[in-house]
Amino acid sequence: MVVPSLSRQGLRSRAVPSEEPFSSQLEAWLLTDGTKTIGALTDVFAEKAFAVTILFLMFFPALPLPTGGITHVFEAITVLIAAEMVLGVRRLRIPERLRRRDLGTSVTERAIPFMVRRIRWFERFSRPRWARLVSSRSFHRLSGLIFIGLALGAAVAPPFSGLDTLPALGAVAIALGLILTDIIVIGIGVAIGAGGVVLIVTVGAALFQGLRHLF
C-alpha cells in the first residue's frame, strides 16, 4: 500500500492510522513535523512500542557493516527493554534522556527508508497468524526472554567476525513478527537467531581451544 503524497502542513496533526501497514505508518510518521525522537516513535506506536523499539535497536547490529562497537550500546538497551517484557510491564519505560534523543538525519533519511523497504517486502507475504497467542501476556514475556538471549549472543560474538549479525537479524524478524502478529515470521526469526547463537558458541569454543593450545 502506497502512502499518498501529502504536504508536511497537512500531516502536522495527523495521527497515524492503525489499519495501515506498518511500513506505511512508519513512512507517514517520517513525514510529520517535529523532531524525530525515540520518545515520539514509541508514543505513536504505543501498543507495540516494545517490538518497534527493539526492531530499531537491533536493526543496526543486523547490518554487516563495521560499527566501531556502538552496537553493544544498542544490545545493552535491548536487554533492559526485554527485561521489562519479562517482568510483564505493558507500557515501555525508558529514561527521559533517551526519550528525548534525536534520531538524527542519518537515521531518518537513510536507515529508516532502507528499513521500510525491507519491511514492505515482508508485508507482501505476511498476514496475522495466531494473533491471539502472539498478543497474549505470556507470549509477551517469552518474547522478552528470547530477545535477551539474542542480544547477549550478539554482544559476545567474536570481534570482527560478523557473527553478531545473525542473532541480531533473528531479533529483528521476531520484533517484526510481533508487530505484524504473524507467528510464522516470529518462527523464522527464532530459527535464524538460534542458528546464529549456536554458530557463535561453536566458533567461540574452537577459538578458545586454539588459544589454549598456543599458550
Give the arrangement of secondary structure elements.
Elements: H1 22-31, H2 38-44, H3 49-59, H4 71-86, H5 96-99, H6 105-125, H7 131-134, H8 137-155, H9 165-180, H10 183-214
Distance between the termini: 59 Å
Give the biggest beta sheet. Answer: none
> Roughly what fraction of the amino acids lie in strands?
under 5%
The level of helicity is 55-70%
Poorly predicted runs of 5 or more residues: 1-17
Structural class by secondary-structure content: mainly alpha
Which oligomerization state do the chains in this entry correspond to?
single chain
Rg calculated over all Cα atoms: 18 Å
Q: What's the domain count?
A: 1
Mean pLDDT: 79
Q: Count of DSSP helices?
A: 10
Q: What overall geometry do the principal axes of the alpha carbons give?
A: globular
Number of strand elements: 0
Order of helices and strands: HHHHHHHHHH
Characterization of the model:
By secondary structure, this protein is an all-alpha fold. The protein has one domain (22-214). The chain has helices at 22-31, 38-44, 49-59, 71-86, 96-99, 105-125, 131-134, 137-155, 165-180, 183-214. The longest helix is centred in the C-terminal third of the chain and has 32 residues, at 183-214.
Describe the structure concisely.
Helices cover 65% and strands 0% of the residues.
Which labels suit this protein?
single chain, 215 residues, mainly alpha, 10 helices, globular
